[in-house]
Amino acid sequence: MPKEKKITKAVIAAAGTGTRFLPATKNQPKEMLPIIDKPIIQYLVEEAVASGIKDIILVTRAGHHIMEDFFDNNRELEKQLKETNKLDRLRIIQEIPKMANFVYTRQRGHLPYGNATPLLVVKELIDPNEAFVYMFGDDMTLSEKPVTKQLIEVYEKCHPSAILAVQEVPDSEVPRYGTVKYKEHGECEYEMELGVEKAPIEEAPSNMAQFGRFIFTNDVIKEALKVRTGKDNELWVIDILNSLAQQGKKVIAQPIEGEWLTTGDPLRYLQTTLKFAMQRPELKEDLTKFIKENWDF
C-alpha cells in the first residue's frame, strides 16, 4: 500500500449562489464580499496556508472568474501603485498570488446541489492515498492556532476517514446546522456515531454543530459518489459521513479551540465583520467609541 502523503491540499467550496445577499451578489460571489479590507475567501486561504497547505483548489461556478482574477497579478494596478510611490499597498497585492498554488475548477449545472457536491468535482484532483482539507467558502474562524491546523494535528494522531470541526451552539441556533451524536466507546476521542442535518432542537442529538472545516480521505470521495441526495434534494456532507460511520469507519467530530463565525446571512456577516474589526488595534478604539456615541446600550 502506498505511503500516505502529508496534507498539502485544501478544497474550498465556493460555488454557491449567495441569494441572501442579493443584489450585492448578482455579479460577484459571496466569498468576495469584504470583511474590512480583504474578501472572505482570502481569510480562508490565509488560514489554510498558515496550517501548511500548499495547493488551494477553488470550486467555483459560472460567473465566478472574479476569484481567479483576485488571486492573480494585476499588472496595471501594480504599475500605478509603483508610479505613485504607494509601495506598502504594492507589496500587499503582490503577495496575494504567491500565497499558494491555485487551481480552479467549475461545478457544472448537471450535478446535484449541496454542500458535498464540490467533492464530485475534485475527485480526479485528489490522489487515492492523500487526505485533504475541505472548507466551506463562507465560514470563518478566529483562533490562536489556525482551526485547520488543529484538525490536521488530530488527523495525524488518529488517521480517521474524516474529521469535521464542531462547536457548541445555543438551542436557538441548532435548527440552522448539522449536529452530532458521539459514540460512547470509540477508538478515538470525539468519534461520531450519528449526524443530523438542520433538526429541530427536540430531535437534534446534541448542541455540537458542524461547520465548514473538515479533513477528508478518499473514503469520503468514494462515498460521495454512492450517496444519494437527502434533505431538500441536496447532497449533504453529513449524509456521507453518516454512511461512513455506519460502515464502521472512524469519523471524528472535533471541538475546536477558538470561535467559528459564519457569514451566511446579512446579520451574521455584520457580526463577523465587527468581530474581526475588534481584532485590529488600529480600528478597535475608534470603532468602540463610534458605537458608544451612536447607540445607547
Topology (SSEs and partners):
Layout: E1 9-13, E2 34-35, E3 38-39, H1 40-50, E4 55-60, H2 65-70, H3 75-83, H4 87-95, E5 101-106, H5 117-121, E6 132-136, E7 139-142, H6 147-158, E8 162-168, E9 178-182, E10 192-197, E11 208-216, H7 218-224, H8 237-246, E12 251-255, E13 259-262, H9 266-277, H10 281-294
Parallel strand pairs: 1-4, 1-6, 4-5, 8-12
Antiparallel strand pairs: 2-3, 6-11, 7-13, 8-11, 9-10
Helix pairs in contact: 3-4, 7-8
Plain-language structure description:
By secondary structure, the protein is of the alpha/beta class. It has one domain (9-257): Spore Coat Polysaccharide Biosynthesis Protein SpsA, Chain A. It is built from 10 helices and 13 strands. The strands form 4 sheets. Strands 5-4-1-6-11-8-12 form a 7-stranded mixed β-sheet, with helices on both faces. Strand 2 (34-35) and strand 3 form a beta hairpin. The longest helix is centred in the last third of the chain and has 14 residues, at 281-294. It is globular. The N and C termini lie far apart (62 Å).
Task: Provide a short characterization of the protein structure.
This protein is of the alpha/beta class.
Descriptive key words:
10 helices; alpha/beta; 32% helix; Spore Coat Polysaccharide Biosynthesis Protein SpsA, Chain A; 22% strand; two-stranded antiparallel sheet; 297 residues
